[in-house]
Amino acid sequence: MIVSLDIVYCSHLYFHPAMKPDDSVMGVEIVANFIGEDAPVRIPVELLTPHLSPQQQLSLFSEKLALIEEHKSFFISQRLIAWVHINEIIVDALINDQSLFLRLKALPFIELTLSESFPDLNSGTANLRLAKIAGDFSLVLADFGAGNATTKPIFDGLFRRVIMDRFFIQKQLPGRSFTPFMLAIIGQISPFCESLLVDGINTSAARRKVQGLGFAAMQGKLWPLVPPNELVSLLPPHEGLMH
After folding, report:
1. pTM for the full model?
2. Domain count within the chain
3. Domain hosting residue 124, numbered range
4. For 23-55, what is each residue's pLDDT tens digit?
5. Which of the residues 116, 150, 178, 181 has an alpha carbon 20 to 30 A from that of 227?
6. Nearest partner of 33 among 18, 53, 48, 51, judged by Cα
7. CATH number, residue 204
Protein backbone atom coordinates (compact mmCIF):
# COMPACT_ATOMS: atom_id res chain seq x y z
CA MET A 1 0.00 0.00 0.00
CA ILE A 2 1.18 3.56 -0.80
CA VAL A 3 0.46 6.48 1.55
CA SER A 4 1.17 10.08 0.58
CA LEU A 5 1.90 12.62 3.32
CA ASP A 6 4.83 15.04 3.02
CA ILE A 7 6.73 11.96 1.81
CA VAL A 8 5.34 9.02 -0.14
CA TYR A 9 5.49 5.86 1.98
CA CYS A 10 5.12 2.22 0.92
CA SER A 11 4.07 -0.51 3.34
CA HIS A 12 6.42 -3.43 3.97
CA LEU A 13 5.24 -6.44 5.95
CA TYR A 14 7.33 -8.57 8.29
CA PHE A 15 6.89 -11.45 10.72
CA HIS A 16 7.82 -10.82 14.37
CA PRO A 17 8.20 -14.14 16.19
CA ALA A 18 7.05 -14.97 19.70
CA MET A 19 9.36 -17.58 21.20
CA LYS A 20 8.49 -20.21 23.77
CA PRO A 21 10.81 -20.76 26.76
CA ASP A 22 12.28 -23.79 24.93
CA ASP A 23 13.23 -21.49 22.00
CA SER A 24 10.63 -22.89 19.61
CA VAL A 25 8.24 -20.54 17.82
CA MET A 26 4.70 -20.15 19.12
CA GLY A 27 3.59 -17.79 16.38
CA VAL A 28 4.33 -14.59 14.52
CA GLU A 29 2.85 -11.13 14.60
CA ILE A 30 2.31 -9.52 11.19
CA VAL A 31 4.07 -6.15 11.45
CA ALA A 32 3.87 -3.30 8.96
CA ASN A 33 6.53 -0.66 8.51
CA PHE A 34 6.19 2.25 6.13
CA ILE A 35 9.33 3.21 4.22
CA GLY A 36 9.81 6.46 2.32
CA GLU A 37 9.73 5.91 -1.42
CA ASP A 38 12.46 8.47 -2.13
CA ALA A 39 14.16 8.64 1.26
CA PRO A 40 15.31 5.94 3.72
CA VAL A 41 12.74 6.89 6.35
CA ARG A 42 11.09 4.01 8.20
CA ILE A 43 7.96 4.62 10.27
CA PRO A 44 6.23 1.97 12.43
CA VAL A 45 2.58 1.56 11.53
CA GLU A 46 1.37 2.70 14.95
CA LEU A 47 2.79 6.18 14.26
CA LEU A 48 1.21 6.41 10.82
CA THR A 49 -2.18 4.84 11.59
CA PRO A 50 -3.75 8.12 12.84
CA HIS A 51 -3.03 9.57 9.39
CA LEU A 52 -4.61 6.67 7.48
CA SER A 53 -8.17 6.85 6.22
CA PRO A 54 -10.55 4.02 7.15
CA GLN A 55 -10.20 2.66 3.62
CA GLN A 56 -6.40 2.69 3.87
CA GLN A 57 -6.57 0.85 7.19
CA LEU A 58 -8.82 -1.78 5.62
CA SER A 59 -6.44 -2.07 2.67
CA LEU A 60 -3.52 -2.67 5.02
CA PHE A 61 -5.52 -5.33 6.88
CA SER A 62 -6.29 -6.98 3.54
CA GLU A 63 -2.59 -6.91 2.62
CA LYS A 64 -1.78 -8.73 5.85
CA LEU A 65 -4.42 -11.36 5.13
CA ALA A 66 -3.04 -11.83 1.61
CA LEU A 67 0.44 -12.47 3.03
CA ILE A 68 -0.94 -15.00 5.49
CA GLU A 69 -2.96 -16.70 2.76
CA GLU A 70 0.22 -17.03 0.72
CA HIS A 71 1.86 -18.94 3.59
CA LYS A 72 -1.27 -20.74 4.81
CA SER A 73 0.11 -24.25 4.36
CA PHE A 74 3.23 -23.33 6.34
CA PHE A 75 1.23 -22.03 9.29
CA ILE A 76 -0.99 -25.10 9.29
CA SER A 77 1.81 -27.65 8.93
CA GLN A 78 3.93 -26.02 11.65
CA ARG A 79 0.93 -25.26 13.90
CA LEU A 80 1.91 -21.62 14.19
CA ILE A 81 -0.33 -18.74 15.20
CA ALA A 82 -0.55 -15.60 13.07
CA TRP A 83 -1.38 -12.47 15.07
CA VAL A 84 -2.98 -9.55 13.23
CA HIS A 85 -3.80 -6.25 14.92
CA ILE A 86 -7.28 -4.79 14.62
CA ASN A 87 -9.08 -1.63 15.72
CA GLU A 88 -12.69 -0.50 15.71
CA ILE A 89 -12.61 0.12 11.95
CA ILE A 90 -11.59 -3.48 11.25
CA VAL A 91 -14.10 -4.82 13.78
CA ASP A 92 -16.96 -2.92 12.14
CA ALA A 93 -15.86 -4.19 8.72
CA LEU A 94 -15.80 -7.79 9.94
CA ILE A 95 -19.32 -7.39 11.31
CA ASN A 96 -20.73 -5.75 8.18
CA ASP A 97 -18.71 -7.26 5.32
CA GLN A 98 -19.60 -10.93 4.84
CA SER A 99 -16.81 -11.56 2.31
CA LEU A 100 -14.16 -10.22 4.69
CA PHE A 101 -15.67 -12.24 7.54
CA LEU A 102 -15.55 -15.46 5.50
CA ARG A 103 -12.03 -14.72 4.29
CA LEU A 104 -10.83 -14.51 7.88
CA LYS A 105 -12.84 -17.56 8.93
CA ALA A 106 -10.90 -19.57 6.32
CA LEU A 107 -7.70 -18.86 8.30
CA PRO A 108 -8.46 -20.42 11.70
CA PHE A 109 -4.87 -20.07 12.94
CA ILE A 110 -5.20 -16.27 12.96
CA GLU A 111 -5.73 -14.53 16.29
CA LEU A 112 -6.78 -10.88 16.34
CA THR A 113 -4.91 -8.54 18.67
CA LEU A 114 -6.27 -5.28 19.99
CA SER A 115 -4.98 -2.59 22.32
CA GLU A 116 -6.20 -1.37 25.68
CA SER A 117 -7.18 1.85 23.88
CA PHE A 118 -9.98 0.07 21.97
CA PRO A 119 -13.16 2.13 22.45
CA ASP A 120 -15.26 1.11 25.45
CA LEU A 121 -13.04 -1.89 26.18
CA ASN A 122 -13.73 -1.58 29.90
CA SER A 123 -17.37 -2.51 29.32
CA GLY A 124 -16.21 -6.06 28.64
CA THR A 125 -18.94 -8.27 27.23
CA ALA A 126 -21.39 -5.34 27.49
CA ASN A 127 -19.52 -3.93 24.48
CA LEU A 128 -21.73 -5.77 22.01
CA ARG A 129 -19.60 -5.43 18.88
CA LEU A 130 -16.53 -6.63 20.77
CA ALA A 131 -18.49 -9.49 22.31
CA LYS A 132 -19.69 -10.51 18.84
CA ILE A 133 -16.16 -10.55 17.41
CA ALA A 134 -14.92 -12.50 20.43
CA GLY A 135 -17.59 -15.08 19.70
CA ASP A 136 -16.45 -15.47 16.10
CA PHE A 137 -12.66 -15.18 16.39
CA SER A 138 -9.86 -15.59 18.93
CA LEU A 139 -8.98 -12.23 20.48
CA VAL A 140 -5.71 -11.27 22.16
CA LEU A 141 -5.10 -8.24 24.38
CA ALA A 142 -1.84 -6.90 23.00
CA ASP A 143 -0.68 -4.48 25.70
CA PHE A 144 -1.93 -5.42 29.14
CA GLY A 145 -0.42 -3.01 31.64
CA ALA A 146 -0.39 -0.02 29.30
CA GLY A 147 -2.64 1.78 31.77
CA ASN A 148 -5.67 2.37 29.56
CA ALA A 149 -7.95 -0.44 30.71
CA THR A 150 -9.17 -2.36 33.73
CA THR A 151 -9.11 -6.12 34.11
CA LYS A 152 -12.87 -6.43 33.47
CA PRO A 153 -12.64 -7.45 29.77
CA ILE A 154 -10.12 -10.13 30.75
CA PHE A 155 -12.27 -11.39 33.62
CA ASP A 156 -15.26 -11.40 31.24
CA GLY A 157 -13.40 -13.96 29.12
CA LEU A 158 -13.06 -11.87 25.96
CA PHE A 159 -9.44 -12.84 25.32
CA ARG A 160 -7.88 -16.15 24.44
CA ARG A 161 -4.45 -14.74 25.28
CA VAL A 162 -3.04 -11.71 27.06
CA ILE A 163 0.29 -10.09 26.18
CA MET A 164 2.09 -7.94 28.74
CA ASP A 165 2.81 -4.43 27.46
CA ARG A 166 6.43 -3.94 26.43
CA PHE A 167 6.82 -0.50 28.01
CA PHE A 168 5.33 -1.73 31.28
CA ILE A 169 7.72 -4.69 31.29
CA GLN A 170 10.77 -2.56 30.52
CA LYS A 171 9.85 -0.20 33.34
CA GLN A 172 9.43 -3.05 35.84
CA LEU A 173 12.40 -5.23 34.80
CA PRO A 174 15.11 -3.45 36.84
CA GLY A 175 13.13 -3.58 40.08
CA ARG A 176 13.76 -6.06 42.87
CA SER A 177 10.07 -6.89 43.02
CA PHE A 178 9.84 -7.81 39.33
CA THR A 179 9.61 -11.57 39.82
CA PRO A 180 6.99 -11.62 42.61
CA PHE A 181 5.04 -8.88 40.81
CA MET A 182 4.93 -10.91 37.58
CA LEU A 183 3.99 -14.08 39.44
CA ALA A 184 1.13 -12.22 41.12
CA ILE A 185 -0.13 -10.96 37.75
CA ILE A 186 0.12 -14.42 36.20
CA GLY A 187 -1.75 -15.91 39.15
CA GLN A 188 -4.50 -13.32 38.84
CA ILE A 189 -4.94 -13.42 35.05
CA SER A 190 -4.16 -17.01 34.01
CA PRO A 191 -7.52 -18.49 35.14
CA PHE A 192 -9.29 -16.21 32.64
CA CYS A 193 -7.31 -16.92 29.45
CA GLU A 194 -5.50 -19.75 27.74
CA SER A 195 -2.02 -18.24 28.07
CA LEU A 196 -0.03 -15.12 28.90
CA LEU A 197 2.81 -13.78 26.76
CA VAL A 198 5.35 -11.08 27.53
CA ASP A 199 6.63 -8.36 25.20
CA GLY A 200 9.60 -6.04 25.63
CA ILE A 201 12.26 -8.74 25.95
CA ASN A 202 15.11 -6.93 24.26
CA THR A 203 18.17 -8.53 25.87
CA SER A 204 19.41 -11.94 26.92
CA ALA A 205 19.36 -10.77 30.53
CA ALA A 206 15.68 -9.88 30.26
CA ARG A 207 14.99 -13.25 28.67
CA ARG A 208 16.67 -15.08 31.54
CA LYS A 209 14.65 -13.07 34.03
CA VAL A 210 11.25 -14.00 32.57
CA GLN A 211 12.00 -17.43 31.09
CA GLY A 212 10.96 -19.47 34.10
CA LEU A 213 8.02 -17.39 35.31
CA GLY A 214 5.30 -19.20 33.39
CA PHE A 215 4.79 -17.04 30.32
CA ALA A 216 3.84 -19.09 27.26
CA ALA A 217 6.07 -17.06 24.95
CA MET A 218 8.31 -13.99 24.77
CA GLN A 219 8.61 -11.25 22.20
CA GLY A 220 10.92 -8.28 21.77
CA LYS A 221 13.93 -6.87 19.97
CA LEU A 222 15.96 -9.92 20.98
CA TRP A 223 14.19 -11.64 18.08
CA PRO A 224 14.29 -9.39 15.00
CA LEU A 225 11.66 -8.97 12.32
CA VAL A 226 11.74 -11.61 9.59
CA PRO A 227 10.90 -10.76 5.95
CA PRO A 228 8.28 -13.00 4.33
CA ASN A 229 10.79 -14.80 2.11
CA GLU A 230 12.71 -15.91 5.22
CA LEU A 231 9.77 -17.26 7.23
CA VAL A 232 11.20 -20.78 7.11
CA SER A 233 14.31 -19.49 8.92
CA LEU A 234 12.30 -19.50 12.15
CA LEU A 235 12.35 -23.30 12.14
CA PRO A 236 15.27 -25.44 13.35
CA PRO A 237 17.57 -26.23 10.37
CA HIS A 238 16.52 -29.88 10.07
CA GLU A 239 12.85 -28.87 9.93
CA GLY A 240 13.44 -26.01 7.52
CA LEU A 241 14.92 -28.39 4.96
CA MET A 242 11.60 -30.24 4.83
CA HIS A 243 9.52 -27.23 3.73
Report:
1. 0.92
2. 1
3. 2-240
4. 999 999 999 988 877 767 777 777 777 888 999
5. 116
6. 48
7. 3.20.20.450
